[in-house]
Amino acid sequence: MKNLLLLSNSTNYGEQYMQWCKSIVASFVSGHTKSIVFVPYAAVDFSYAAYTDKVNTALFEYAIEVINLDAVENKKEAIANASAIFVGGGNTFHLLKTLQDLDLVVEIQKAVDTGTYYAGWSAGSNIATPSICTTNDMPIVQPSTFKALGLVDFQINPHYTERIIENHGGESRKKRLQEYLAANGTQIVVCIPEGTYIQIRGETRKFKGLEKGKVLTHGREIDIEDNHKF
User: Fold this and answer.
1) Is 103 designated active site?
2) Which of 24, 116, 160, 197 could cross-link 111 (Cys pair, CB 3.0–4.6 Å)?
């Protein structure tokens, strides 16, 4: 049975790192904290060690300590033996390319398919989907393919907002996603604003959070609220 926690973001405006979500993460992995592997490869302009320390500081009060995957010699073995896998946010293209270069995509897929808990935020949520085509990030590096982990059968757009900058002529977030759906007509995009998340246990998938989310398909949109199953 798959167990996934897919968060829009790690930090709400004006809050400390993981302040809004650390209790949610801790509750999700309760009983599965013996060996949590942290995948830090979405970090680009700061070290993987510093990223791991940041996560451990945030989760210290819950007696949760994660292992920096980059510091482990046998990464495939670490993933296979993990009680849970955490994948942090940052740049989605850099994250996916690094996992591809290290030949870890299939290892993560196998682990989650056999019951290992998976928690991701931002980029870590993006790569749980079939492809990274609905990320908000700039393609600063080129993965071998846009195909991602495919742990779920729908796309995610984290940090979703319909706000537009005054006097700015660029496309809105929704417009960009509508373009994606026009080009990929059978796909589904679940839009999760900051402070919201998706929790999946087996066949049950539920949207959680105080803000409304959205499910977009080509030519259709549905608003979703806290505890909505889709």
Assistant:
1) no
2) 116
- Catalytic annotation present for 10: no
Q: Name the 3-class secondary structure at 110.
A: helix
Q: State the catalytic residue, choosing from 8, 10, 94, 137.
A: 137
223 is catalytic: no
Return the sign of the alpha-carbon dihedral for residues 10, 14, 17, 18.
Answer: negative
Express each pLDDT in 44-102 by its tens digit: 999 999 999 999 999 999 999 999 999 999 999 999 999 999 999 999 999 999 999 99
Q: pTM to 2 decimals?
A: 0.97
Answer yes or no: is 177 within a domain.
Answer: no
159, 172, 218, 228: the catalytic one is 159
**Which is the catalytic residue, given 8, 10, 70, 122?**
122
| 222 within domain boundaries | no
Q: What CATH number is associated with residue 38?
A: 3.40.50.880
